[in-house]
Amino acid sequence: MIFEPSPEDRLAVDGLRRMIEREIAPIATRHRDEVFPKQVAHELLGLLSRHGIGGGWVPEEGGGLGLGFVSSGLLYEELSRVSPDAAGLAYVHEGAAMKLHRGGSPGLRQRYLPGLVSGQLIGCSAVTEPGGGSNVRNMKTRAQRSGNGFVVNGEKTFISNAPIADVIMLTARTGEQDFSVFLVDPREHRIETREIAKLGLRSWSLGQVFFNDTWIADDYLIGGVGEGLRETMKGFERARIFVAILALGIAQAALEESLRYAREREQFGRPIGAHQLVQAMLADMATELHAARLLVYRGLALLDKGQRCNLEAAMAKIYATEAALRIASKAIQIHGAYGLTTEFPVERHFRNARMLTMPDGTTQINQLVIGRELLGIDAFGG
Predict the structure, then answer these.
(1) Torsion of CA 152, 155, 158, 162, to 10 degrees
(2) What is the value of pTM for the model shown?
(3) 46 — alpha (psi -120 to 50), left (phi > 0) or beta?
(4) Which secondary-structure segment (H or E) carries 144?
(5) What is the rounded CA–CA span in Å between residue 378 and residue 89?
């Protein structure tokens, strides 16, 4: 239960930290409240791929580094402290690369996987729909057999990376109870995308994808027909834990800003950090952050063992994202009126933290997941 970084992990994080400060931070600052343009997103993924982010999960035989999830989590947490937007871009992209590695044909892997691992291509996964939300089985997007391929009609929404993606891993209904995954190449398949403006994480692209009689050949099928739901659900555990990692980075940044301000800002003739109530807030912030980190790394350790961790992933996702929101809120309080201004970064940390209670299952959906795991009773009614 002690998740102590190995010497190799410490070296990797130190090297990443230096690169982030030198190359990632200036880019993140320039695009602080605007979507990373596609060219910039490619640049970020190219820089990060050299440090095992964006393709590190892919085994060496697939061109990746074959990193364990604990090692990868340490890297993503360090990146999230400076740019959770870049971390989100990379983890969604990396999930698409893993789907291709596991289920793609040799031809598809040869054609697309090297570009995904290197950051020359940007990947995403399209599951969520306007009327479905967390109810994946209510999916309306259909892929109907047509000759040696499928015709797809439907709409996906709240899809991270979609407007800038080169590879979209689409989950669609191929029968009454069958769901399948297809690789969609926007250069070859007729689709339309649209960016969604949002409260926080504004540099991380989020959008809608529209399919209107889009024909996709059998060659682009990932795995077999009807295997998509199992693959999609399996990815939720990993996704929930990595959303929680973004929350750790945001919370760490908010705490660091608060500690700095508490030492420097004077009131009533002494630093505000000398006041008991400020110290109490800082103590709560640090305690919640450490507790969240333990939950997150427990989930990562289970992923490394290849064990199912629905319960642990849901707990980590709930606690880390809600804790980050509370920590960022206290950071604003410590900064006083300055915390409400864009002159200080804590208001951005608050907006970013607020975003993370929603994706890959809201807090309430994950509470139902936990309840189902504890009781064996499904509150979803299915």
Answers:
(1) 50
(2) 0.96
(3) alpha
(4) strand 142-146
(5) 33
